[in-house]
Amino acid sequence: MGLAPIVALEIGTSKVVALVGELREDNHIVITGMGMHDSAGVRKGEMVDFENTRICVKQALGAAEETAQVSIHQVHLALSGGDIQSLVNSGTTPISNSSEGVTPDDVAEVTERARSVTLPPDRKILHSIGQIFYVDNERVARPENFEGTQLSLDMLILHAHESHIRNTVRLLRELQIDMADTAFSGLCSALAILTPEQKEGGVLVIDLGGGTTTYTAYAAGIFAAAGAYAIGGDHVTNDIALAFNIPRSQADRLKREMGSALAGEANRSARVPIPAEVGYQGRNVSLQGLQTVIHLRMTETFQLILRDIERKGIIHQIGAGVILTGGGSQMKGLVTLAERVFRIPCMVGRPIGFSGLASATENPACSSAAGLLRYAFKHATGGRRGASAWSRIKKILGAA
Amino acid sequence: MTIPDTLIATNRICVVGVGGGGCQILGSMASTWDNAPALIAINTDAPSLKATPCNSRLQIGTRITRNLGTGGDGKIGRLSAEEDVDALQELFRGLDLVFVIATLGGGTGSGAAPVVARAARETGAIVITFATLPFTFEGDRKMSQARQGLVELKDHSDVVIVIPNQALFAAEGTTATTEEVFLRADYYLSMGVFAIWKLLTQRNIINLDFATLRMVARCSDGESLFSYGEGRGPGRATQAVQAALHNPLLDNGEAIAESESVLVSILGDPDMSIREVDAIMSAIKAATRIDAHIHMGTAVDENWKDTISVTLVASRYWREDNEVEDKPDEKPDPSSGPDAGGAVAPPPKRRKRKTAETQPQLTLGGLSKGLFKDVQPTIVDHEDMDVPTFIRRHVTVDK
């Protein structure tokens, strides 16, 4: 037991999740503590009500402390705003001594160059992840000791709005908690649910959250693309509420209990009752209408992601299929719909390589928080081995 | 006593065919239609333009195409029309109603037709566009060019009536030749134009006046579907209305059941009785929504014998006419040529512009966003994703 437990926190639009995890042998992670609280004050992944959010975070962390029997002073934070975007940047450097081959210093230099991109002033780099090295334009997996004159590196850069991060840091400071690191929640989800075989075969992970939908794509074992849209389960609920003119609480219940992402499967005359509540007279609505509303929204969301993946030219490298996760993946008919849109096999993914509290390890809504634990432990072990140039690089590359 | 202004004179209407397909349909109209309004062919391709029988012809884009047509490129089609936008406006000056006929998919049809419609509208005419969509076998590229053309036509026309050729193809069965299906599409389309023209220019049993047409044009939103049916001999009324209602162009009646606005034109021989009109209207009422806005008119053609035809124009949405006057600061599109602003007198009347930017605000306001009305909108490709998808896609949801 070398490492202290790590705490992963995700302030989502529908839930605040805090997980406490410990690292065991073979990179297995045991989740020893969990706190989950309904979120108030977050819309589309962005904080809109500071005070309410603070209370929710405090409750979730409190519950996690209680189950894990620890006291929390530091957290890792998963970010999932719809403002997160990715780009690929290349860096090139001459190889310092062509007869000796590539040295760790050359690798450090090219990494530094590939990382230096000019972003608008309000944006901050979240991750920079190395994709492919080239020695004299030849692809190589590990460039060290290759002879040549020029070394290049393609790097995937994920960036986000700085204000988004700053607000969360301020909130944690009020709770007297340090922020150790941040990570893109889409990347975390992928780390939680993917096997190396899936990454090698090419895979697209879609995390359907309450306020945002994030995606992460791997092609040939390389982290190839990522992105986010501020469109999520709340949009589905809102669409239903507006379509039938019913309260949002009722729309949310309808979505969970009767919703389906496939249209035209229900009997045209089938109707669903909506019970009366205070200030609202009960009535019933068409099941087919309900499913049409959901179908249109989910189809559109998938089509946006498909278009991005097509534009980035990696759709044909996704051989292992599409994996859905996040709370929204529990929607009935969604797997079939995704297969129709992407025309590749599709399934729902759950965290793998975790044990401990079943409510956390079994729940797709916890994928990103669980993945964040894995991300954090990887970095922690990288740091322990000492600060050689290679381990610094490994830290950058290891994220993928 | 003067003619009441509910009728319009034939000399204030014109029919324009744009592109090869549009001109071909215009040609078939010219050969069957007596005392027709002005029929004007507009094309980039000189030989095919010359071959079109019609009253007048306008060749556009002679500089940009060097007389060689567009080669199927919609961009060149659009630039060709932009090049001659002054001539187009001159053509439409003083008209009340312009029918634009285009077969979308080709270069001139998809690219130039929206500019022609815009030019007509800027001179103050009501623009009713009939547009056919290509067959699926004509390829994705043509279809996507057609879709793009349709989106632009909607922006610049008061009513766009869409005729998906593929729907006709499906209904004709496996034995029909392509030629037959094309002829059928041409026939339906020319009858549609003919029926609306008849209603507006003649004194009829029940008038559908120009003011009503203007209101329908203003209130019905998005694209409209169109259908035509004929009946002869005993039972001709039922025959005609059933043929129209179950026409493949209306998805065999599915579309009419969901439409909020239906324009009905009944055309018959001099013996047509009120009882027959009543039978037709009852059948239509039974097939439409209870709350649908139905506008109808009847007309008689002295040359017809023992025949009744029913033409339907169905629009998915009806918007109440609460913005009568448009903002006076609306200017003609600056891209309409260097002289458009100075030389052309301001159009006599202004109507709403059905542009993608203004529409959601006008119809929906803040209400349509519910939960998201106070937060930063999610905009993707100029579309506000917080507005429910079914509203943006104009899908009617069963309540």
How is the secondary structure organized here?
The complex is a heterodimer of chains A (400) and B (399).
Chain A (H helix, E strand, L loop, with lengths): L5 E6 L3 E9 L5 E10 L3 E2 L2 E2 L2 H19 L5 E6 L5 E10 L9 H12 L7 E13 L2 E3 L9 E12 H13 L3 E7 H9 L2 H6 L1 E6 L4 E7 L2 E8 L3 H12 L3 H11 L12 E4 L8 E4 H25 L10 E4 L8 H9 L3 E3 L5 E3 L1 H4 L5 H18 L4 H10 L2
Parallel strand pairs in A: 1-6, 3-19, 6-11, 12-17, 17-18
Antiparallel strand pairs in A: 1-2, 2-3, 4-5, 7-10, 8-9, 8-10, 12-13, 13-14, 15-16
Helix pairs in contact in A: 2-12, 4-11, 6-7, 6-8, 8-9, 11-12
Chain B lengths: L12 E6 H14 L5 E6 L2 H6 L4 E4 L2 H4 L8 H10 L1 H8 L4 E7 L3 H16 L3 E8 L6 H17 L2 E6 H8 L5 H24 L8 H10 E13 L3 H10 L8 H5 L2 E8 L5 H14 L5 E8 L6 E12 L21 H4 L15 H6 L14 E2 L2 E2 L4 H4 L7
Parallel strand pairs in B: 1-2, 1-4, 2-3, 4-5, 5-6, 6-7, 8-9
Antiparallel strand pairs in B: 7-10, 8-10, 11-12
Sum this structure up briefly:
The complex is a heterodimer of chains A (400) and B (399). Chain A has 400 residues and is an alpha/beta fold.
Considering the chains and any ligands shown, give keywords for the structure.
heterodimer, A: 400 residues, alpha/beta, Dna Ligase, domain 1, Nucleotidyltransferase, domain 5, 6-stranded mixed β-sheet, 5-stranded mixed β-sheet, 19 strands, globular, disordered C terminus, B: 399 residues, 10-stranded mixed β-sheet, two-stranded antiparallel ribbon, 16 helices, disordered N terminus
